[in-house]
Amino acid sequence: MEIDRGVITGNTMKTNIDNVYAIGDIRAQVMLAHVAMYEGIVAAHNIAGEKTEMDYSAVPSIIFSSPEVASTGLKEKDLNPEKLL
Question: Please, which residues bridge with residue 62 across strands?
Fold first, then answer.
């Protein structure tokens, strides 16, 4: 099994070992309960033979300060201004 800070998977949650999937904190990527739950759903679909991929584009991030700051969706650095016109 490949490990780099956590178990490495593709967007289907499958590891480099046949029939082994990993979700949640063991992946050491986005360690949020609602993300792990959706990763589990994606893994279950793939285990059942339905090709499904994880989409992290709408994962919120928040800074618990006063006032709180939050964001979700695409970041400015990910946008291509030429495609917006």
Answer: 70
Give the CA distances from residue 57 to residues 1, 2, 35, 54, 74, in Å, rounded to whole numbers and listed in that order: 26, 24, 11, 9, 7
Tally the C-alpha atoms within 13 A of residue 40's C-alpha that lie toward its C-beta: 9
Whether 30 and 59 have beta carbons less than 8 Å apart is answered as: yes
Average pLDDT per run of 10 along the chain, which is 85 residues long? Answer: 91 95 94 93 97 89 89 79 66
Q: Can you say whether residue 28 is alpha, beta or left, with left for phi > 0 and alpha for psi between -120 and 50 degrees?
A: left
* CA 36/CA 38 separation, integer angstroms: 5
